[in-house]
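Bench log, entry 3. Co-assembly request; chain sequences pasted below exactly as received.
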Amino acid sequence: MNRVDFNTLMAIGIHDMKGALNAVISTISDLVDPVTGECRCERERLIHLQYEAQRVNDTLVQLLTLYRRNEGFYTPRFVSTAVYDLLEEQALRQKPLMDYRGVVCEIDCDEDLIWPLDTELMGGLLENVITNTIRYTGGRILLTAARDGDWLRIAIEDDGPGFPESMLGRRDEDQQGVLDRSAGRTGLGLYFCAVVAQLHAGPRPEEGDEGAADSAPAHGGHVELRNHGLLGGGTFVVTLPRLYPG
Amino acid sequence: MLVVDDFHNMRSTLRQMLLTAGYAAIDVAVHGEDAIDKLAQRRYEIVLCDYNLGEGLDGQQVLDLARARRLIDLSTLFIMVTAETTSDMVMGAVESMPDGYLSKPFSKDLLAVRLDRALRRKQSLKPLDPLVRRDDLAGAIKEAGRMLDEGEGRESDLVRLRATWAWRIGDTDLARASASTAWASARPAWAGSLLADLDALAGEVTAAEAGYREVMRETPQFMPAHDHLAALLREQGRGPEALEILRAAAERSPKSLERQRALGELALANGDAERALQAWRRALRIARQLGQPHPSDAVARIEALLASGDSRKARQAVRDLDRDFSSHPECPWYSVLARLRLAAAGSRDELDGALRELEALPDAGMPEPVREPLNRVLAELGQV
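Structure output for the full assembly:
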């Protein structure tokens, strides 16, 4: 498999974090009046700090996961998970930022939908995508999830301007294009998402069940970027195969 | 609201979070048995129960027991709190579904949001509570139909409830219609399993088997499909296949008393004494945990011991039976049955004493499940 060299990923990650930390430092210095030494604790700046710090954290989580995967000691744990709960949890985590930006987030998912997935990996993926979406949306975000045969489809939609043409389509970790610098700071995040989706793979343990073999997903999941979604803006879609917990 | 957790710290943290979120009147239970006692004393609207409760009952057993004994209403909200390490165990085998899950650690905001959402969903079922409480299922079906017509409550819940009630009162047409509707849209496991039950009832064995297998493939955590398929296969004389299904199901979810009993019987009937022994040992333990120990489990274990050729342990097990179940009113009958089994397996010295005891027992008091095996073993001993 044509995996991207981890050193390259690390360089990109460091670049991203350096940018975020720079923003943190300059914001903090703005908090104190250079003349009077007075502390100006503005909500706007605090939210911004929170956002940049969150991004450093996200990037570290991503790099760590990618590193462990690269070294061959990340074994995903597929656990039957209530998908609505997963979406709700991630949306709630980013509520302060959404509230501040006046973003409204809705969830459209069957509350009874249960799917086996690695909650840590998928939590990281959703966190990354939602953070990114908050930046580009016009004011609305829609999280949807539904099963499609032996696949689960989760989509994060917004009403913003959408993705640049060059980023559209299915993204696989093997595609060097995922790390295209022109994609800006989303490069590593998108690569991470592709890896997370692909890590959702595995044999199907059902023996002697003829029907199952045909529909068995041979490969792991994948991610795809689209435009003109339900809200008119960009749509991030992650598709995961049905795997067996344990 | 009732909070069930075996850790003092967690109980007070939860309490504090709930108070902040605007919930008052919070009772606490410190373990599963305590929870059952509290649930028996009063009706709660919300039960927040940790899955892992230490030694005794776990959260799933509390839920199963509370539902079986009708200590909670249809509209009672039961939320299972899980730790990250146990969540695959909890979600990997569902005997009866809680109304929601909360995975530790969680924030007070998440607790509030999840309770609020689940409450809204459950509160809409309130009109059905009195009907279900007095077992008026026909009335409940009618009311659910009205709610569906008028768009009250959540459609998928109402369709599911109506289907299961229809099945229970034998209205197979309505059960099939409701299950088909649900299956056609979201393919929930209960609907697939119920359709298979209906096929099995109609003698459509092939269709039923395919139906159960489909559900097990798509939703392996839905345990009733495993149990019902095993029962179907057994009826069809396919014992070894049934045993394999039940063995895997018991491995996936080992705490169901009924499943361990069925596994014990099936294993013995198929000559797998080891497996049977293990199942009956577990059944005895679970029954004790659930507060419903029964001497028939001990007799079954003795039978499995004899089948495995260990008559020394079997004799010991009879003494255990006499001791452990001495306060059980049916104990003498099962004790006699066990001794006769010992005799039939070669311990002839047990025969006279057992027959004398049997003589002394009033025939009218014989528990019905004892009659047939007793006659069988007496015939075997040439005593009829």
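The first helix of chain B runs from residue 8 to 20. Chain B has a mean pLDDT of 93.
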